[in-house]
Amino acid sequence: MKRLNLKLLFLSLLAVGLGSCTDLEIEETDSRFGSQSGEFTGLEDPQGSLDNIYNDVRGQLENQADLYALAEVSTDEFLVPTRGVDWGDNGVWRTLHSHTWDANHSFVLATWNNMNRNVINATAVIDSRSNPTAQQAAEAKFLRAYSMFWVVDLFGQVPFRNLDDAVDVPPIVLTRAEATDFIINDLREAIPDLPAAPFGGSVAANAEAAKFLLAKVLLNKHIFTGSGTPDNGDMAEVVSLVDEIEAAGFALYDGDYFSLFTDEADSETILFTTSSVGNLMWNGLHYKQNSPDNEGGGWNGFSTLAEFYDLFEGDPNINVPGSNQEDRRGFVPTDGSNLGIGYGFLIGQQYDETGTAMTDRPGNPLIFTKELPGLLGNDERTGIRVIKYHPENGAFAGHKVIFRFADAHLMRAEAKWYMGEDITAEVNELRTLRGASALGSVGAQELLDERGRELYAEFWRRNDLIRFGQFTAPWSYKEISGDNTKALYPIPANALTSNPNLVQNEGY
Hints:
Strand order of the largest sheet: 4-5-8
Number of helices: 16
CATH topology of the domain at 1-79 and 97-194: Serine Threonine Protein Phosphatase 5, Tetratricopeptide repeat
Strand content: 5-15%
CATH architecture of the domain at 1-79 and 97-194: Alpha Horseshoe
C-alpha cells in the first residue's frame, strides 16, 4: 500500500480529458501492441498500467467539473451562479443546474471519455496475455466496474472494445442491462482476490470497497434494467454485503462529523484517494476568506439552495453556534476560531480569524444570503456556501473519501425498506450520532432526505434523486422540470460520429 501512496503523492495534478478518446484506444505507455489489424499481445508492465489507472481516477475525482459537476450541480444540492463575469464559462454551470444541457456540453464529453478510457485500460490489465497476478486482475476489475458504473448511471449505454479488434472497428455497445450484469460479474469475480480493507480504508481496491460498490449497483439495478421494482433477492444481497462490511470492522463513526473528512483514520472510510480536496474547499468561499497556506482566498462560486439547507435541523436563518442545528449542518464561527471559516453551511454574516465581521470587496457586510436573484445577476454575497473539507487541515490536503460506511448503513436500511421492514430505528441510530432528533417514522422522502443530509458533496445526490423519482422535480432556478429524458445525459456528439453502434438517448 505504501508503494501506491508514494506514487500517487509524487504525481502532480493529472491532466485528464485533454484529447478525444471516443474511439477507445489503449494509451501506448508501457504496453505492447499488435498490428493495426488487431491482435493485442499484452502489457509489458501490468502493475505500472494499473498504477496509471489509479492515477487517472485520482485526477478525475479531484476535478470540480466533469463527473462531480454532472453528479452534483445538476441537482438541488449545488448551483454555480454567475457573479458579474465570474463563473460564466459559456454557461456550462448554469445549464447543468437548469437542466438545459445538450450533447456538446464539455463536462459530458470529458466524463464520457474519462470513464470509457478507464474501462479499456483496465481491460488490458485483466487480459491473460498481460500476465497479471490474481490481485492485479482483481484490482483492475474493480476499477473497470467503478468506471463502467458511472457510464451506466450517467449515459445508459456502454461502448466496449474487444482488444483484438482492428482500430477501425467501432466498439460494440452494451445495453444498460447488459452492462449492469457485466459490472456485477466483475465485482463478484474480484472480491475473493482483493485484500481486506485496513482500518481507515485504503487508496487501492479492497474487498470491502468491492462489496460496497456491488451493493450500490444492486440497489440501483431496478433503475438500470428498467424493471422499476427492486428485486427482493437483490435487496437481500445488499443487506448481506453491508453486514459483511460491518463484520470486517467498519462502523458508524461516533465522533465529530467533520473529522471524517480529514486524513485521520476512522471507522467509516472504506476507500479514499490522495486527490486534493482544494476544489471542494475553495470553490464556494469568498475571495477574502483565506488561510495561511492559501492567501489568495476562495473562488466565490458554488452555493446551495435554500430548500436544501432547510432539510437540516436548526434555525432556518442563521447557523452560528447554538442555533439548535444538527452536527452535519456545521456552524459559522463568530470568535475567529477555525481560521474564521465555518464548517458545513455558511449563511449570514461571516467573520475573520480575529472574530471581526467581514466585508466583501466593495465594502458591504459579507452576509451570505439564503436567496439569489437567479443564476445570473449575482453579487459577491448571494447564496449559502458549503464546505465539508476544511483548510485548517491543509488548504489543498490530499485525502478525498470515495466510499464510507454511513452510506452503506443507509443502503442497507433502504434495501430493508424495499422488502417491507420498518427501518426507523436504523435511520435514527445514525441521526442520534449526528446530533439530530429521532424521526417518528421513515418512508421514501425521509430516506432521501437523510441521504442528502449525510452525503452532500460526495457525488451521490443525482443518483439518489433518480432512484427516488425526484430528479426531474422542480426546484429553484431550474428551467426544465418533469422531463424524464433528463435522467440520462446525452451521448456526446463526436462519440456518435466515431461509433455508429451508439444511439443517441431519447430527448436529445
